[in-house]
Amino acid sequence: MKYYIIAGEASGDVHGARLAEILQSADHSAVIHGVGGHLMIEAGVTLLFQYHVIAIMGFWHVLKRVIVLRGYLQRCKNDITSFQPDVVILIDSAGFNLRIAKYVKRQDPGIKILYFIPPKVWAWGGWRIKQLQKYVDQVVVLFPFEQEFFTAKGLTTHYYGYPENDDKQSKTDVIPNWIALLPGSRIQEIESTLPTMLEVAKRFSGYQFVICAMDVISEKHYRRNKLPENVEIRWNNVHEVLDGSIAAIVTSGTATLQACYARVPQVVVYKTNWMNYFIARILVQVEHISLVNLIAGQEVVKELIQTNFNTDRLSDQLTRLIEDPDYRNKILNWYGEIRGKLKCDRVYEKSCDRILQKNLSNL
Predict the structure, then answer these.
(1) How far apart are CA 261 and CA 98, in angstroms?
(2) Most exposed of 7, 86, 89, 141 (fewest Cβ within 10 Å)?
């Protein structure tokens, strides 16, 4: 069979690579093309282009690059038409992937579409439900509350748990003065969050700050501001850095759960331009932005958003993470509760089983 996998960001590259490996192991005739990153390349996927060119977040940033994005979208449509896959696997990245789903189904309704990590329409973007219902055959969700939500909307939904557990080993020795900096997986996020992180690092000269960098993003974006002497960059090593850290400053996203599973107390940050923030405030329907707090249903880790994300407030929160053992233990205890809520039942393997069972046609 022929498969086309589209992952539009770093976390999607991880998922896409694991799915590709299992598909090839189960289906020796598998040929896989798509969009992703270096992990999918290593897994044997032939990429049309790498995800960083479409990894744009925020209404204003998308609007500014709409012509460029349309070009990549058309290239992807043409590639799918030429490749003629049996199954298309979409991973997150709703703005790009829902357009692909619509195109695929209109061109050939016989091509099956599995959405691995569908859009977070329970938080915002509820208008996308109709697109999912019309163009997607199945969805695989990572969180238990999503199964009930999407099933109620009439979508064939599968929940096997959160895959972080699949490969998680025991925590390595913590390095007493390491603090992880996770500025995001998109250029816009890095440019918005890293300067404040670096200013805070200057105030904590007795600690070593480690930036978790993505190889698909040019080093110039990490060095746009001069790095203090106590800051270093490590590439594609987020698990190792987190495992060795006593605390983390994390840009909101999947990385907040990575810190949870690594048992690293964290403060979550986010900042965007005023137009993106204004629109988001109108559309977003949830109280918290971090996955850790959303799953817990309350504020477990501090969120510093927009104007609250500044050097003084971030310094105060980092000091608390480092020096307040009761606060650290409270966070770590909640991490255990959160991990307990997220089962893990061979997520990738069972997702691939769905793909392989009569090419999704019996489901």
Answers:
(1) 30
(2) 86
